[in-house]
């Protein structure tokens, strides 16, 4: 009997592997591969030895030569149209191997081998094992690739024990797991990233009988292979329970559906669209409908397949597994590993009262950072939503999905009687079909457009409006984010505008630059662009534009690694809740405040709160930043945030911070309105001591720092061209009284510029020696015998930072007054005659010019040569004396 083996159109790894497995059961036979849209599979198929495996081309086939057709991974008519001529033969024997449920479109086969397994290759591998088949290492690897692919490496809910047993048998046959990983890898091109951005920006969440279903759409000019891989990527990025990714590509619409919720069978819905698949993974290719019609069809199907809601008591697991707040992170991690839990409630020691929540990811990351012996209450989530037993499914969904809390403690009489986890919600969601309520899920958001109108300048408003209009034109969601929004809400002067775009941020930046007659500087590594332009006053201005992104840290104090994400994750990567705010600028959403983390309420409560418990571990600079914001806005650190800072200090994480990053934060502190307040708070918390114990403040240093602030405020009002660097002056203040060696060590630790280290430390030593000289000079001045020129000569080499520090340390009012006069008047004095005048007096150019001009300036300062005429007389006298001295020296030389 001549046999042809084939699979469904747009084949996947499982389909190809099943064909290769069927080859052993039906040899001799021909294999007809109908093609695939997945690039990794295309690459694998292209590298196969077609002759060895018996692959044939459809164009070369004579259908009459075959009297048996074997279908794998499908039995639906619409999915095997490439063998339609063969199916028309009357005496054809048809056999099917499938793991999909029955459908009305199924072919009537003579024999059907089916079972609900994660991969159809598993079913065939079981028969091969029973028949005692022997496979080559390459064949075992290809079959394993099919199983790994269709089970998500055994992570999909559809995975069965049979899949694992089949993989074990293939491993014994020589399956290479490393090679499987290489063959199945998906490399995203720039087109894939653009499509992923389109899916992210268009994603809409629908509440379907309290189940969250996300529909995301992308319109592409040309066909894009591996569209299914984007759906998988989106599921992982956003942790979605159900996703329908719809891509319009030319004249067709591709639907890829994934579900982690047993209540939503995406296979049934895709089957209604002409496709098929499993309950957890399915797809469809639609040619006869428009994009919005496909969306409406999906929603109608969801309505028909809905399940009813239940109460929290029906969903909860009781008794709840939890851990005492005094237990260690290592103990909590072991407990969750033992029970296979993603999170546990944290109980007050010796009770069932819920005081927090700890998730497995936090415990694992903390352990990786060497924090296994720390107590659970150091890193637990303290804001925990609890519900009573009679809570509705909508209440549970709001907590677990809306608030992104992994589990909900169910509390009765202040005691935790059970928990409902995300997994519990999925497992219990399936039930008898009930009436479905479909509505778009919207977060209740505040609109602050009136603040934009009332509190911003016309120029700033116009820039925001322009960004929003361009975003709407380009189909992009545009947000102003971070400190700009924070200061807008606080009614403080707003700084540079930072924009985040869900989609192609570079496209918006280029459009802005074009409209503003500016230019764009792009940073591809960090997905950011800077639009540089000139404002109405001709001053250079800038707007930062970023593609929505997330950051993660490979180890404590590391620089962040950036990945594409949504606005939610972009805000989550920020440091504090008050900085994790955004305002929408495009279209009808203009002015909507995006506040996922309670930043608006924290602003109202004057609280600085960190976003997650490992924030300071991953980036210790946030410890300094927290105190800087606290002092700038006169806020208070949240109790949990202050505790986490102290915990980070106890772990000596400041030691891992590079000097460059430390200097960057230190310089920002010195640029604040009240740096001494920041330093005092840093000393109270222990940050200065963590940088170096020698920086610990005492009352004398505190008084000096405060005097330096007064001096800087005074100096700023002078509008002097000779600017002073606050960071340098405060470095002198922080290191006052310390010996040279310790000051040098602090210079290096704090990351101050190495190129000027020698000069700065020399200035410091010179300043120290000057203090006694200045006191002696002032005593003479008190008696009227001091010369201003002497003071001028002492202070001329001294930097502005040292001058201000000398003023701050001077305890004599007379000396302070004279230092002030030097800064405002005497240091600016110059002789009224110049080098040109000396040349006209007949003096040849040379070093003597400088001597004469300095002598003339000294005489002017001391009142001995106040007029121009007097200065000319003095200059002539000095020239004459020099000439006489020169003649006398020449005469002596001649006599000699």
TrEMBL record:
Any one Gene Ontology molecular-function term assigned to this protein's record: nucleotide binding
Pfam families reported in the protein's UniProt record: CBS (PF00571), DHHA1 (PF02272), PolyA_pol (PF01743)
Protein keywords: CBS domain, Magnesium, Metal-binding, Nucleotide-binding, Nucleotidyltransferase, RNA-binding, Transferase, tRNA processing, tRNA-binding
CDD domains: NT_ClassII-CCAase
All copies of domain CBS, residue ranges: 380-436
Highest taxon of the lineage: Bacteria
GO BP terms: tRNA processing
Record-linked InterPro entries: CBS_dom, CBS_dom_sf, DHH_sf, DHHA1_dom, NT_sf, PolA_pol_head_dom, tRNA_nt/polyA_polymerase
Cofactor: Mg(2+)
Assigned protein family: Belongs to the tRNA nucleotidyltransferase/poly(A) polymerase family.
UniProt name for this protein: tRNA nucleotidyltransferase/poly(A) polymerase
Upper taxonomic lineage: Bacteria, Pseudomonadati, Thermodesulfobacteriota, Desulfovibrionia, Desulfovibrionales
């Amino acid at each position: 009997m001549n046999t042809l083996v084939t699979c469904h159109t747009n084949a996947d790894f499982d389909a190809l592997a099943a064909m290769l497995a069927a080859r052993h059961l039906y040899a001799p036979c021909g294999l007809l591969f109908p093609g695939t849209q997945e690039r990794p599979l295309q690459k694998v198929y292209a590298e196969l030895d077609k002759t060895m495996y018996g692959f044939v081309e459809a164009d070369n086939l004579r259908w009459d030569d075959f009297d048996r057709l074997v279908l794998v991974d499908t039995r639906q008519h619409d999915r095997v149209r490439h063998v339609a001529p063969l199916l028309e033969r009357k005496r054809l024997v048809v056999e099917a191997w499938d793991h999909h449920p029955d459908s009305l479109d199924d072919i009537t086969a003579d024999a059907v081998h089916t079972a609900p397994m994660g991969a159809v290759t598993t079913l065939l591998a079981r028969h091969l094992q029973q028949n005692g088949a022997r496979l080559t290492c390459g064949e075992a690897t290809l079959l394993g690739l099919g199983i790994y692919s269709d089970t998500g490496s055994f992570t999909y809910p559809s995975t069965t024990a049979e899949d694992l047993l089949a993989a074990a048998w293939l491993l014994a046959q020589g399956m290479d797991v490393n090679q499987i990983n290489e063959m199945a890898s998906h490399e995203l091109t720039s087109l894939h990233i653009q499509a992923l951005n389109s899916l992210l920006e268009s994603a809409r969440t629908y509440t379907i009988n309290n189940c969250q279903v996300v529909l995301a759409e992308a319109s592409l000019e040309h066909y894009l292979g591996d569209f299914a891989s984007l759906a998988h990527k989106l599921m992982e990025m956003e942790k979605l329970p159900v996703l329908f990714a719809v891509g319009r590509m030319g004249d067709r619409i591709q639907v890829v559906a994934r579900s982690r919720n047993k209540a939503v069978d995406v296979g049934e819905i895709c089957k209604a669209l002409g496709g098929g698949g499993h309950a957890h993974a399915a797809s469809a290719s639609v040619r006869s409908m428009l994009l919005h019609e496909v969306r409406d069809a999906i929603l109608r199907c969801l309505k028909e397949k809905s399940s009813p809601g239940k109460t929290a008591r029906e969903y909860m697991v009781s008794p709840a597994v939890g851990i005492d707040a005094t237990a260690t992170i290592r103990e909590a991690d072991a407990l969750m590993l033992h029970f296979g839990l993603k999170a546990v409630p944290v109980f007050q020691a010796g009770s069932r009262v819920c005081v927090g929540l700890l998730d497995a990811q936090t415990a694992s990351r903390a352990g990786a950072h060497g924090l296994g012996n720390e107590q659970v209450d150091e890193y637990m989530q303290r804001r925990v939503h609890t519900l009573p037993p009679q809570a509705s499914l909508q209440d549970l969904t709001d907590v677990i999905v809306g608030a992104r809390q992994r589990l909900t403690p169910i509390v009765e009489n202040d005691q935790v009687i059970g928990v409902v986890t995300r997994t519990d919600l999925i497992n219990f969601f399936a039930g008898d079909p009930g009436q479905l309520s479909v509505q778009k899920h919207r977060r209740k958001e505040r609109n602050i457009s009136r603040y934009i109108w009332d509190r911003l300048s016309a120029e700033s408003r116009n820039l925001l409006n322009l960004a929003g209009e361009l975003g709407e034109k380009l189909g992009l969601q545009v947000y102003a984010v971070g400190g700009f929004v924070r200061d807008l809400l606080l009614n403080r002067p707003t700084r540079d505008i930072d924009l985040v775009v869900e989609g192609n941020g570079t496209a918006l930046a280029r459009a802005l630059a074009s409209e503003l007659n500016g230019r764009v500087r792009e940073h591809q590594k960090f997905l950011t662009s800077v639009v540089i332009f000139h404002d109405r006053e001709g001053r250079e201005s800038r707007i930062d534009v970023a593609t929505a992104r997330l950051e993660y840290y490979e180890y404590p104090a590391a620089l962040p690694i950036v990945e594409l994400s949504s606005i939610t994750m972009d805000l989550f990567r920020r440091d504090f809740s008050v900085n994790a705010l955004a305002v929408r600028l495009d279209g009808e959403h203009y002015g909507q405040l995006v506040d996922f983390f309670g930043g608006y309420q924290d602003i109202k409560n004057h609280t600085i709160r960190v976003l997650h418990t490992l924030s300071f571990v991953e980036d210790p600079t946030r410890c300094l930043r927290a105190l800087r914001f606290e002092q700038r806005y006169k806020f208070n650190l949240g109790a949990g945030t202050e505790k986490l800072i102290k915990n980070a200090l106890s772990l000596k994480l400041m030691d891992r911070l590079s000097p460059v990053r430390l200097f960057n934060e230190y310089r920002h502190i010195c640029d604040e309105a009240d740096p001494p307040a920041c330093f005092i708070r840093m000393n109270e918390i222990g940050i200065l001591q963590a940088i170096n114990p020698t920086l610990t403040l005492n009352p004398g240093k505190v008084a000096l720092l405060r005097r330096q602030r007064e001096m800087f405020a005074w100096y700023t009002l002078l509008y002097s061209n000779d600017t002073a660097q606050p960071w340098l002056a405060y470095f002198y203040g922080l290191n006052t009284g310390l010996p040279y060696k310790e000051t040098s060590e602090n210079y290096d630790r704090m990351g101050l510029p190495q190129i000027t280290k020698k000069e700065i430390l020399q200035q410091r030593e010179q300043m120290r020696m000057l203090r006694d000289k200045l006191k002696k000079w002032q005593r003479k001045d008190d008696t009227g015998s001091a010369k201003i020129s002497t003071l001028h000569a002492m202070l001329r080499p001294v930097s502005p930072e040292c001058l201000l520090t000398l003023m701050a340390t001077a305890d004599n009012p007379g000396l302070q007054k004279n230092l002030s006069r030097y800064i405002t008047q005497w240091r600016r004095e110059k002789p009224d005659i110049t080098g040109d005048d000396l040349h006209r007096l007949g003096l040849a150019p040379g070093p003597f010019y400088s001597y004469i001009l300095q002598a003339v300036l000294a005489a002017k300062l001391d009142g001995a040569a106040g007029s121009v005429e007097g200065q000319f007389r003095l200059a002539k006298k000095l020239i004459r004396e020099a000439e006489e001295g020169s003649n006398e020296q020449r005469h002596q030389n001649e006599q000699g």
